[in-house]
Amino acid sequence: MQTLPEDIRADEANVVTLPDGRELACLEWGDPTGYPTFYFHGTPSSRLEGAFADGAARRARFRLIAVDRPGYGRSTFQEGRTLRDWPADVCALADALGLDKFGVVGHSGAGPHLFACGARIALSRLAFIGALGPWGPLATPEIMGSLNLADRSYARLAQHGPRLFHALFAPLGWCAKYAPGLFTKLITASVPAVDKHRMRDKRFVQHFQAVQLEAFRQGSRGAAYEAFLEYRPWEFDPSEVDVPTHIWLGTHDSFVPREMGEYLERVIPNVELHWAAGKGHFNVEDWDAIFAACAADI
Questions:
Q1: Comparing C-alpha atoms, which of 262, 294, 251 is closest to residue 102?
Q2: Which residue range or ranges hold the AB hydrolase-1 domain (predicted)?
Q3: Residue 13 needs a FRET pair 20 to 30 A away by CA distance; which of 26, 140, 260, 290 works?
Q4: CB–CB of 86/116 below 8 Å?
């Protein structure tokens, strides 16, 4: 069941100051009295993406706290950050919100950040991971060979530092801000038929464009640097993930090849991976099933 809110609440944000003075912006979706769960957006994206899981979170009684990662939306860019820094930020945010224990869920480029939390946050504090179409470690040789030409090229560029990524993401950020129709056409051209059908949903597209506009609020630096991190070898191994993990992958997902899902299923110790037959990358209706699976770990 898919239920998108009418209002994506683009002007709303709860900005929390971290111990080092940086700010993280978040926006709550779902059931405000439900189980606290952080929502990690894709790459590039923003806290507004939580709208796509809002209805499912309300039905399953999850309090969904969607967070802008550093450099996105209203969160401070963090020079030199690594994937290992994110779990500490999440715990600091949980402390500021008065949360002793919580879950984490997310979509697409959220994968590295979800799995970093699973590897670095103790089970006594992190209850579960729920992931829709998550990226795995792209630089792993067995995954690299299954990537499309563009992703293989990005992985090679990542070996030479972040500057080239800034050049690549600047036009993307310009499109998101000043030519959203062109941005949508570029994304639509790269997805399978099932996702092309999704991109004909007027409300979905309106929300998608608003999400991306907010992602590039500060320019393209945050998205470019994060992509650089994700295409490089990670600073941890997914086999270190030590919490119950629930993954849903579409069999027609053009961004997450089957080999990537099989790799994650093989190396993450406590994982349940579900193949969504005939689905693509934007199968947001599967959030109902993901939250149902995560509820068993509360």
A1: 294
A2: 41-285
A3: 290
A4: yes
Whether 166 is covered by a domain: the verdict is yes
CB contact burial 199-215 (16+ within 10 A = b; e otherwise):
beeeebbebbbbbbbbb
Number of domains observed in the structure of the chain: 1
- CB atoms near residue 145 (< 10 Å): 10
Q: Does residue 3 lie within any of the structural domains?
A: no
Average pLDDT, the chain: 95
Q: Show the DSSP H helices in the chain as ranges.
A: 54-60, 86-96, 111-120, 141-144, 149-157, 163-178, 180-189, 193-198, 202-215, 221-231, 258-267, 287-295
Note whether 267 and 238 are within 8 A (CB).
Answer: yes
Residue 120 tokens read as 């670095």
Measured distance CA(83)–CA(71) in Å, rounded: 14
In a domain, 71, yes or no: yes
* Three-state DSSP state, 205: helix
* Sign of the C-alpha dihedral computed for residues 12, 97, 62 and 194 taken in this order: positive
pLDDT confidence of residue 165: 82
Q: Are 13 and 47 in contact (CB under 8 A)?
A: yes
Q: What is the CATH number of the domain that holds 178?
A: 3.40.50.1820
pLDDT digits (tens, 9 = 90+) for 15-38: 999 999 999 999 999 999 999 999
**What is the domain extent for residue 278?**
14-295
CA 36-110-283 angle, 5° bins:
90
Confidence (pTM): 0.97
Q: What is the DSSP letter of 224?
A: H
Task: With H, G, I as helix, E, B as strand and everything else as coil, classify residue 117.
Answer: helix
Q: Characterize the bridge pairing of strands 62-67 and 245-250.
A: unpaired
How confident is residue 243, by pLDDT bands cut at 50, 70 and 90? very high
